[in-house]
Every structure is written in structure tokens, then in C-alpha cells.
Design brief:
Layout (H helix, E strand, L loop, with lengths): L4 H9 L4 E3 L11 E4 L3 E5 L17 E5 L6 E3 L4 E11 L4 E7 L1 H4 L3 E2 L6 E2 L4 E10 L5 E3 L4 E9 L37
Antiparallel strand pairs: 1-6, 2-12, 3-4, 3-6, 5-11, 6-10, 7-9, 7-12, 8-10
Length: about 190
């Protein structure tokens, strides 16, 4: 069941859902608007001939900051990682869906490729996978509305929520855009 605005407010007021900062006008009928933070991870293709998913590639990306009212230009076909300005925390009986703003989708800006699902127990800033599928460059500004998050109640609380030690949750507590840590999956027993 998707939570309504009333239930979202109740969950925030009780401290079960954390969204910080939370703008007064950000709660929508069944979601909460989220904003773009100022750091981006930009891929530097010339540094690597290919991406080997079994290796940590710390030089694959570099941080760029959006300064003040200066725009970051996302070119057609370009892909960058960003993060939400907001810290998001979920209890063990709620999951969330991160979706793009339809107004931005209508100009070709996608905010995630596959990472739209937020596990119960999540705590941190959400990493965004920004892609420009339009034929023209798109501007990105610090603090702009970038997406919306909706919440769904589980049938029971999760036995092992995200962040539990036995899960080895790779992204719990992240505070800025975080590059892939998929390579860590290869060090675990299969």
C-alpha cells in the first residue's frame, strides 16, 4: 500500500521516516519532492579502456561541484552520478521508490537507470544516476527539484533490514554520490 500525504506526515512526525532537510511544500499527495545536491561524480572515459566490474576503479570518476547559481551542463548521452540534498532514513517496515519529476522527464532527464528502489532500514543520501537522453544539453542546478520518493508498507517488518551487519550493505550512510562498489560482491562466497 502506497502511503498518502497524511500518513507520510504522521510517519515523519513520529520520526519513523526521516527526510532532512524537509521543505514545507515538498510533501505531495503520495510522495515527497527531493532536491539535487552540489556534488557530481563525472566519468573520465580516457582514464580507463573499459569498466571491469570485478575491480575497484577509483580513477573512473572525479568530483565536480555545482557552485552557487552556476549550471552544470549535462550533454546528450552523458551519464553522471549525483545525490539528493536530503538525508533519508526508513524504518524496517517501509520501502521507498525514487522516481524522476515528470517535468524533467519531458525534456529527457532521467534520474536513475536501475536504482529507484530504497530498502527498509536505509539511512543516507540517495545516489542518483543522471542521464540525458535528449538531443540538447540540459542544465542542472544545486537545490533544484530532481525527483520524488514514495513509500510502501511491507506486510511485516524486514527480518534483516538494509544496514544489518550480515548483509554487508555497501552504501549505508553515504553522504555524497557514491561510485559503484559492485566489485565487493566478487569477494563474497557465492
Amino acid at each position: 500500500m502506497v502511503l498518502s500525504d497524511r500518513t507520510i506526515k504522521e510517519e515523519i512526525d513520529s520520526g519513523r521516516i526521516i527526510i532532512d532537510p524537509l521543505g514545507e511544500s515538498c510533501i505531495q499527495p503520495a510522495s515527497v519532492d527531493l532536491h539535487l545536491d552540489n556534488k557530481l561524480l563525472v566519468f573520465r572515459n580516457a582514464r580507463q579502456p573499459y569498466i571491469d566490474v570485478r575491480k575497484d576503479l577509483p580513477d573512473l570518476t572525479e568530483v565536480e561541484e555545482i557552485a552557487g547559481d552556476t549550471a552544470f551542463i549535462l550533454h546528450p548521452g552523458e551519464f553522471v552520478l549525483a545525490s539528493t540534498l536530503e538525508y533519508v532514513g526508513l524504518p524496517d517496515d517501509l520501502v521507498a521508490r525514487l522516481e524522476g519529476k515528470s517535468s524533467l522527464g519531458r525534456i529527457g532527464l532521467l534520474i536513475h537507470s536501475t536504482a529507484g528502489y530504497v530498502d527498509p532500514g536505509w539511512k543516507g543520501h540517495l545516489t542518483l544516476e543522471l542521464s540525458n537522453v535528449a538531443n540538447l544539453p540540459v542544465t542542472l542546478y544545486y537545490g533544484m527539484k530532481i525527483g520524488q520518493i514514495s513509500f510502501l508498507r511491507l506486510t511485516t517488518p524486514a527480518d534483516v533490514p538494509y544496514g544489518s551487519p550480515e548483509l554487508g550493505s555497501k552504501y549505508q550512510g553515504q553522504t555524497e554520490p557514491t561510485a559503484t562498489r559492485f566489485y565487493k560482491d566478487f569477494s563474497k562466497e557465492r
